[in-house]
Design brief:
The protein has 312 residues and is mainly alpha-helical. It has one domain. Helix 3 crosses helix 8, helix 4 packs antiparallel against helix 11 and helix 5 crosses helix 6. It is built from 12 helices and no strands. The radius of gyration is 20 Å and the shape is globular. The two termini are 31 Å apart.
Length: 312
Amino acid sequence: MSANNNIGKAISGSGILLALIAFSGFPIGDAFIKSMAGDWPAPAVAALRFSIGAFALAIILFWREGAKGFQINRPWLHAARGLTLAIGTITFFSAIYIMPLADAVAISFVNPILTALFSGWFLKEKMRPVTWVATIVAFGGVLVMLRPNVAAFGWVAILPLFAAVAMASMLILNRMVSSQRSIFAAQFYIAFWAAIFLSIAAGIGHFLLPVMYIPGAPDWDVIIRCAIVAITATGCHFLLYMATMRTTAAAIAPIVYIQLIIATLISIFIFGDVIDPVALVGGALILLSGLFLWLSERRSAAAEAQQPTLPS
């Protein structure tokens, strides 16, 4: 029995390690995006990044599942997933173009709180009082973080908040299609539709908004950086999927906050951003609210598991 327990612990530990590697990789991709500020407009960079990702995923999907892998039900639902991802990507890429990377990432971490709220509203999942407490604290942290940023950058500083809303909506839609297709098909279709919507947005922005004007074809280094982001992001998503197969989602959830630490280090030591002390307080409030909600949900799940089942 002890041997089985040791094997189980080893598998669970490997799952946590995979999640740690995955979450550590996302801020690195964000840093590559931020490095392209001034080289090419954010919507065009986003469209190129997801076009590369969709093409690579199409090859993988066909290799593993053949033509049947591209057959889906309710295509409009996958299009909606792509639309929310496109909106979230444009707003977040635009945010990290103009804001310190650490601040943009920290504000976007209100995403888990929004997901909990949206789950209650749209999926009719039970809303507990602790969710409301965590929400209020998290949004208080967002307001604190926005204070120095709005003063410095204007109201465009709320872009990461829009990104968090869009990504929370995407997670709700992901739950609605989680049982429909394989992970490869799900990844392909969201990247495919995101690439389409982002290409449309980039084209419209080119003609209507000077800040989105595309001066010409991207330089080779822009293409390479977009490809690196596409590869690393897709790889991180697959690592997370593998992690969930080895350990529980509850064990993985708190590891997500390693992104904030890495983003802060990159922001300070690579981009030379000055971190406002008041913004640090706001980021801490967002971090604590997310951990508080996670601990509460874990205790609630443990209490439910210990309740005796009544005979039928």
